[in-house]
Predict the 3D structure of the following.
Amino acid sequence: MKNRNVGIIIIGIALLIGFIIFAFNRAMTSIVNESCSHGPTCPMWGTINFQTNVSIGVMVFVILAGLFLIFFAKDEKEKITHTKVVKHVVKEQIKPREITKDNYEKVMKELSDDEKLVLEKIIEAQGTIFQSDLVEKTALTKVKVTRILDKLEGKAIVERKRRGMTNVVILK
C-alpha cells in the first residue's frame, strides 16, 4: 500500500478518535454535573480535564503521523522485471512430444546394440526410470548399465539424478 493512502487512513482513524473524545467528554461532564455537589472545585473536574488533554494529545500525534506519511514519506519503487504480463490473451497449451521410438530414430542409428537396448527401455518407461529397474529390464550387469549410461550422458541423450540409494535416469 502506498504511504499516501496509509496516511489518509491514519487521519481518518484520528478523526474517529476525536469524535470518541468529544462524545466521552460530553457524557463525563453531564455525569459530573449531576453527581458532584462541590461545583468547579470538585476533583472529578480535574480528572476530566486531564483525560481530555491526554486524549487530544494522542489524537494530534496520530494526525501528525498521518500528515507525515501523506506529504514527506517516499514510497519504495517497485522492482521491474524483464517479464511481460499479457492480459486477456488465451494461449494454447503446447502438448509435449510423445516419447516414442520413432522420435529417437536418428539417435538410435549412431548407438551400439547395448546402448540401443538401454535407450529403448528408457523410452518404454516414458522417459524416466530408476537405474536399478533398468538393470532388471535389460538383464545387463550394474557395471555395464552404468558404463552405457555414462556414454549416453556424454552424448547428451540422458541425464542421471541421484535419488537415495539409486539414480533416476531421465531422457533429454
